[in-house]
Design brief:
Order of helices and strands of chain B: HHHHEHEEHHHEHHH
Helix content of chain A: 25-40%
CATH class of chain A: Alpha Beta
Oligomer: heterodimer
Helix content of chain B: over 70%
Distance between the termini of chain A: 28 Å
CATH architecture of chain A: 3-Layer(aba) Sandwich
Number of strands of chain B: 4
Number of domains of chain A: 1
Strand order of the largest sheet of chain B: 1-4
Number of helices of chain B: 11
Shape of chain A: globular
Distance between the termini of chain B: 37 Å
Strand content of chain A: 25-35%
Shape of chain B: globular
Radius of gyration of chain B: 19 Å
CATH superfamily of chain A: P-loop containing nucleotide triphosphate hydrolases
Number of domains of chain B: 1
Order of helices and strands of chain A: EEEHEEHEHHHHEHEHEEHH
Largest sheet of chain A: 6 strands, mixed
Structural class of chain B: mainly alpha
Amino acid sequence: MSSVLVLDDVHVRYGGSHVLQSVSFEVPDTGVTALLGRNGVGKTTTLKAVLGLAPRTGRITVRGRDIGGERTHRIVAGGVGYVPEDREVFGGLTVEENLRLVDPDAGADAPIVRELFPDLVDRRAQRAGTLSGGQQQMVALARVLLRENDLLLVDEPTKGLAPKLVTEVADVLARVATTTPVLLVEQNLPLVRRIADTVVVLDAGRVVHRGEARALVDDPALTTELLGVSMRREGAA
Amino acid sequence: MSDLVLILVTGLGLGALYFLAASGLSLVYGLMGVLNFAHGAFVTAGGYAAWLTMDALPNSLGVGVRLLVAAVVAVLVGAVVGVVVEVVLIRPLYLHHIQQVLVTVGLSLAAVAATQGIWGADPHPVEKPAWMAGTVELLGARLPVDRFVYVAVALALFAGLVALLRYTRLGLVIRAGVENRTMVEALGIDVRRTFTVVFGLGGAVAALAGVLYSQYAGTVSPGQGGSLLIYAFIVVVIGGMGSLTGTAVAALAVGLVQQLANYYAASGIGDLSVVLLLALVLLLRPSSLKGATA
């Protein structure tokens, strides 16, 4: 199986902190790869390193193209979509304007928005800052899906959402992953079990485990050892 | 009553000039986080560019036509100076805010020194069209026509900038960038190109402020931009960095408070009252009048 994303000996330093320490892993070019780990181990920093939003060294390639020296907007325009933690929609802009930032022509009229997020079409004139957390997450997902992507980086998309919305987000991600590989940072293990194919586990800025998602999530001893939690204590996706 | 009308119109005219000087400053800070102490140099550049252009044009054209042409030239000069400063001095320092401040402070000092070196430290008289130098009678007061010109230009600029922000893609990117420029970049948009455009726009508007302020003062001088910049900063802080509407409201408030205090309290109290207004706003609304929304 070929890889869409390859990280090779990636380091990130913030001041005196060595946040990522020789991180190396590959993301297959199909399905969902979950990036797991306890809080503060460097999961979000890994996504930011790929995007050039964190000062990194080492080699990062997307479909064989070295993106190490590229600026963020070029990396994204080159096919790496990013859904950040906490959504980060533009609260002062309408839903339509949030979408037209990426697709100036279609916005909420784009077929993918009508198909996957019909609620947003009805709320196109509403300011994004007045939407619920779940609706904002839909804006963040819709925004990134308006562009053709080689890879999606999705950071904790279900954080703070009600169980019903978690299921909706999971459905969208599972559907997207049929055509676009996804690197997903997520704490919700039932969701990981449901939609992820492979996992990479970080601890203290290093990769400590790679393998199949179900093999990890279904092994309580291993999840407790690597993540400090197991499925038995998690809610359903 | 006639005195009050005169004070109010003068305050509005001055507020209009403050808005012209502050709007570019506000947009630049709101989008880019750059506190541009060299903005006053753009104002001065506009004033001198207009003065030199008017001087170079044949007198047969008439003062009004020469002023109009000079204003266009000044705006272009301001835009070019803004773009050059952004590309050469600001862009390499985007992640270094202290150095940015030092560079822009240094540039403002160097600009004043260079202007003095080339054209001398003394003010140079600026021609004013006869119709602008005249007065009109309103509610028993004789009001200088130029005050209405400043207000009209400021209103036109405000409407133009609002239209730019609301109805164009550049405006959409600016509004998004004022909220979260990192996320704009993370959506695949080259926000630095927008920075350059906004800096150029800020320079152009500042230069226009320089042209009109030299008309108000009747002269151009090396320190003119710097003195206007102080009020522009106060306006931007009161109105909210990045908020165009807040800047407009604050500019009018500062102009009116300054003139009313000067007349009804004592001459010179106007400047003090403006600082007190700033302190009052910061105490009651630390996030300024309009927060940080464009």
